Amino acid sequence: MRNPIVILHGWSDNSRSFRDLAHFLQTEFGAAVQHLYLADWLSLQDEISYGDLAAAMQQAWLGMQLPTSPQSVDLIVHSTGALVSRHWFTRYYVAATNPVKRFLQLAPANFGSPLAHKGRSFYGRAVKGWKQPGFQTGANLLYGLELAADYSRELAKADLFATESWYGAGRMLSTILIGNRGYSGISAIANEAGSDGTVRIAGANLNCRYLKVALDKQQNVKPGSLQLRKSQGEIAFSVLPDEHHGSIIGNGKKAPHNPLTLKLIRQALQVEDADFQVGSTGHFAYQQQLDSQNPPANWQADLRSQVLCKLQDQHGDPVTDYFLEMYRTANADSRFEQRLYQQFLRHVHPHSQQPQNRAFYFDVAALNELKQSPNFQQLFLSFHAQPLFKPPRQPAGFSVVPASAAAGLRLAVEELAQIFAPHQTLLLDVELTRQVAESVFTLQRH
């Protein structure tokens, strides 16, 4: 007997959106679908937190007497439902006891959505088609859904960079599917290159990296501080041409739009541990199968990379006003730097409540063009942060890298593909040394 299936919706949605998908699954699997549950959760109440939702999900799970033994349930999530479910299983279980076996994520907002900070009025009118004004927006949830939120960063540390892997053979068998097409009509104002109209492809993918570095007073890397880690476990990922955020779950006229979509959904609910075993080549069979069915060369998705940066001083206090500096040499190089900022860096979003956190959105295709230059051998990343340290006038703050020097994080050109990987996110934690002049506090012998 196959596992029960639970389907979880996203922000401002409800289970009615998934009735067609539920019908498809019951038709495809027939009598094999013994139990199929459509979940509903409150997403527009301002005071409700993700912690509240995780607690309520556990309460409902136990109330329905759903299995809690390892790998005993299959879970389908859409959009913000991915955050809710990941919070739930990392809070109430450990990797070895997690009841979820197959974890199908459809257009998941794992690293947030560029629409979240625009609020319910924009998102509701542009994407949901609401014509009436609303009152509550689910403010707490939207702060967590906003790009560069601490919430999604900490959640990633809980399941992607934990001591024990949550994903892969013997654990959760996760598949992530997302579209590459934005909306039409008035909803088109929500569109962004490299997204499905609501979620960035790079922000859906849980295959990611974490980079931590500490910079000294001159913004040189402190010895031993540099750490670069790849997310743990095997997670299948594919981009479906012609699908947008709603059509991938069957919402809209003639949706889904891609004939592969339902096939891959069905397939993701049939995988077994053997499909996620890593072979001698370092790859796992199911990802190779997906790439054969839906070759990455056919994804037709803009090559975008997302860096979620958190800047703090050596005491852990937030640095809220800063500018990311990128350059390849200490010498004057204005034309090349102009191309970096106009073509490579596409968008910057400081989190509305946590401005030390910023989402940088990069065009990998532009970077690949820049790399064709034989003079492009390295890229430096440093920070121009306020307040500037200029005693005695400004006796506390941060030093900047002089125009005649090069410091910060140095990346050789061959390392750039790891930091700015297409369709992926890099979590960047930076410690910047704050200086205080002796004049700020003095003692005198009496």
From TrEMBL:
Domain AB hydrolase-1: 3-167
A Pfam family hit: Abhydrolase_1
Record-linked InterPro entries: AB_hydrolase_1, AB_hydrolase_fold
Name listed for the protein in its UniProt record: AB hydrolase-1 domain-containing protein
